[in-house]
């Protein structure tokens, strides 16, 4: 990877008007004598929340590699950048784009970070390590979820929400794993339908699971009403 500070000939600041790419990938700005402004909303549309660091990191990591900007966020070059107006200005464009891709709940934590390196490292410290404990907690929630007094629709949506949070954290939840979690949390009234669905050769989809379980729920409610009215 080319290091901007290793170039012996620095670009002329007077000709370094920022370029804002719409979708194409450019090379290192020090090789083109142009400042590059990243369009965060178009190129990194997933905003960072307290729960999706892995997917946010993945989109930015690829983007930074594509622009040859990874060294800005992985190496602390405050002294070098301060003495080089072009590098400092490019770093501020990257910093601005990073902050623009943060949710309102996350952005306040990096307002004091002066460089893209500072922002990147602060976010890593806050979310990269805690992510593992968060993943373990979500996995446990999915394994122990129960229907209780929830309707089938509410129960499935709750499980789907947990599954989605795992997905955004970079953990894939298979259809089989999801279905088994649902089966485990159902009361004995659903024993027959769960046994039938387990015995199938193919894994039941979410839509079919919702349909089959809702049918049983409807029948159970009818039976309950009949008994009540007798």
UniProtKB/TrEMBL annotation:
Protein name, entry field: Uncharacterized protein
Region (Disordered): 1-26
Domain of life: Eukaryota
Pfam families linked: Retrotran_gag_2
Bias type Low complexity, positions: 13-24
